[in-house]
Amino acid sequence: MAFNHLPAGVHDALVPLSVTPVTDSVPMAKNHRPDRSPAEPGSRPEPGMLLDRLAAGPSRAARITHTEHLPPRAGRHAVWPDRIRPEVLAAVRAAGIEHPWAHQARVAEHALDGDSVVVATGTASGKSLAYLVPVLSALVDGSEAPNGRGATTLYLAPTKALAADQCRSVKELSQPLGTSVRAAVYDGDTPFEEREWIRQYGTYVLTNPDMLHRGILPSHPRWSSFLKALKYVVIDECHTYRGVFGSHVAQVLRRLRRLCARYGASPVFLLASATAAEPSVAARRLTGLPVIEVADDASPRGELVFALWEPPLTELEGEKGAPVRRTATAEAADLLTDLTVQGMRSITFVRSRRGAELISVIAQERLAEVDRSLAGRVAAYRGGYLPEERRALERALHSGDLLGLAATNALELGLDISGLDAVVIAGYPGTRASLWQQAGRAGRAGQGALAVLVARDDPLDTFLVHHPEALFDQPVESTVLDPDNPYVLAPHLCAAAAELPLTEEDLKLFGPACEELLPQLEAAKLLRRRTRAWHWTRRERAADLTDIRGEGGRPVQVVEEGTGRLLGTVDAGAAHTAVHEGAVHLHQGRTYLVRSLDLEDSVALVEQATPAYSTVARDTTAISVLETDIEVPWGDGRLCYGSVEVTNQVVSFLRRRLITGEVLGETKLDLPPRTLRTRAVWWTVTEDQLDAARINPEILGGALHAAEHASIGMLPLFATCDRWDIGGVSVPLHPDTLLPTVFVYDGHPGGAGFAERAFHTARDWLTATREAIASCECDAGCPSCIQSPKCGNGNDPLHKRGAVRLLTVLLRGAAEAGPAQQAG
């Protein structure tokens, strides 16, 4: 039997300045409800005082395992380059900015020189102004051209919310410049009647990579005047373009550069990120161009107090009698409630859409008990909402009508939400880059701010709140992307050929892997070579060959059965687990039950209900080895990396009681299997190693399964991934290796670089895994060490002590191997 752990959708290093360790044990506790009374209007406590208030009450202070204090920092001014148009400088001064920070002036200078540049400074450091000033200056220059459109700019954001927010900012800043700057958002929400005006007259067009891929590039003749005049391409929050998504975006940008060259343009790329490691390297890989780095942050910063918070144990028992901590969801809802009662503006970041909805509902109910008017000042924000719902929430947040928001990472990126007092992060978001992005949403007006990371009952979260050095002593992760991934490159070669016949000269732009792929595309009758160019042969759109976000096809529409009203959408890759028949679906504080899921028509019918439970899908997974690329001996065992095929099927779902997580029952499902060809790292052990580890056949499956779960939980510390981006399978006797084997694989077609990183850091990664299991205080395993929140086998079997002994023997073999055999 194989035990599996599936990815979702199978589908300035900081020096700690003070440490506040907590040595008291956390007592068994029921849900704690501190005394709450509305705060005095306009009161704004210092971050440390605000944390003290949140920690007030029995057992609460013991939940803080560490407090990090980042001191305030003074700013350094400079002067704008003298080549900036005086009208633009006047508009900037009218906005209250007399002098730029030193890094802003440097970025503007490089942009004016025609150098592509990446600005990698902290949140709220004025990155937008750094690239906007040279861009606006170019647009004003262009407005004096005979046709009135002598220069254009294309702005790319990873989310619609960020593009809309930036459009507001551009319009406000450029208002004194009149019609020389015509800014507009062009995305899937743009009304049809506005699109032609934007194509013909827009000079600053804000969009996203998806619209560039599917809408703009395939229709480039209609965009010819815009592309011919393209002076700058702005890529905001460029660190988000990593993994498979980033690899797709890299190829989309190469297609853009190719078309621009056809129209006689060679745009300068201006990139921005608050959390990028080796930013110039990552930017060059993304754009295919040399990029200058500006990373010396000269902006001032308010004090940031960052607390690590571990929920208490409860009196409940989980699977196999394991002790259960209070959920991060319930704990974060309490903190959001307390902050709102005190009149503090805050965002609670949640990892899932369902979690965002649940936290807002709990907070609204508890706020209504204090003051009914407060309940309406908290809401949820997540992907899948209708455009008008998202815009209304964004306006309410900007205006201050909303005090608190429970949001997914859709609000993590760059939105200029000034004046937030606190950020609560419900569960480690997967990378240090995301952690600092989310924490940086508070204090953006220069005031002090509080950030609280609430740990989930999960191996990595538990490890981090007790090992703060892993967060605060380490830089953000490197951006991993592979534009040469054949699963990524092939559809973009087809799309490029459909846009303009693909010549041999073009192949240099797309990379060396083209030579091997083109014959395969010809054999598949996707491309045909005529004389010196390859042509797209099909009637359908080549851009539809791939979904650059890897969401697996057409989104599933969620429709209210009784009224036919469209509530929102769910990504196709998540449909089997999120909107299967019987699933609980939350939307804008209302609860619905899924009555049916039609995969052929991509529709889930729901009806409003009030179940006292949530649902969690369960699945089974099989894995086969297609090709072993690298194999190194670890003693008698082997560490390997290569290509695999994964077959997954959702087979049932659990009903869990709200707040406590108690399992109420399981229901079978009949859904089709799905296959995935991807990359994996795996390790094997021999009979002699099992004997040395005192592992008999009765506990072998549980020991392997426990080691697999814990290793997946720890991998995000070593690779730029989220545990939901990776999957795993453990098998007591795998048919391809003929040995007990544990696999960890990338949950994206063709791989995403995570398993490769795991292979090259395997010794450190598995050592940390062993430590995380061994140091956990539970007896037989719990969610803090070896139990997984998404195990397809119900966390059965698991053997904690066996996993520790197994990893000890495996790592002993690694230590005995020569340096060349330790996989880096």
Instruction: Summarize the main sheet.
Output: 7 strands, antiparallel
Q: Helical region count?
A: 26
Mean pLDDT: 86
Q: What percent strand?
A: 15-25%
Structural class from helices and strands?
alpha/beta
Which regions have little confidence, pLDDT < 50, spanning 5+ residues? 8-42
DSSP E strands, number: 31
Q: What is the approximate shape?
A: globular
Share of helix, binned: 25-40%
Spatial extent as radius of gyration: 27 Å
Distance between the terminal alpha carbons, to the nearest Å?
Answer: 32 Å
What does this structure look like?
- This protein has 824 residues and is an alpha/beta fold.
- 33% of the residues lie in helices and 23% in strands.
- The chain is built from 26 helices and 31 strands.
- The strands form six sheets. Strands 1, 26, 27, 28, 29, 30 and 31 form a seven-stranded antiparallel β-sheet that branches.
- Strand 19 and strand 20 (533-536) form a beta hairpin.
- Helix 23 packs across helix 25 and helix 25 packs antiparallel against helix 26.
- The radius of gyration is 27 Å and the shape is globular.
- The chain starts with a strand and ends in an 8-residue tail after the last helix.
